[in-house]
Amino acid sequence: MNTQTTINEPCELAHRANDGLAVTLFWIRSANRLLVSVIDQKTGDRFVLPAEGANALEVFHHPFAHAARRGIEYRTGLRELEPEEAALRVT
Fold first, then answer.
1. Fewer Cβ atoms within 10 A, N terminus or C terminus of the chain?
2. pTM beyond 0.85
3. Spatial separation of the C-alpha atoms in residues 38 and 55, rounded to whole Å
4. Tens digits of per-residue pLDDT, 21-52?
């Protein structure tokens, strides 16, 4: 793996999973951004939330509350993936 590939790849900082729901905190090194990814493996529903250093763990622990507060839809098919989601999409 070369250095450029490593810089552009998301770095997983925290992960938790329960009953088919996976929540992961990523750091995108090249953009110096934090993102929280939520995937419901039972339904395929997914969304990604940007986070700041000061609230990253809050967003990680309460992603549905932050999604609701921001008006983010999280059902599959209701909207197109944001670029951050496409970068984290599991294939």
1. C
2. no
3. 16
4. 999 999 999 999 999 999 998 888 889 999 99
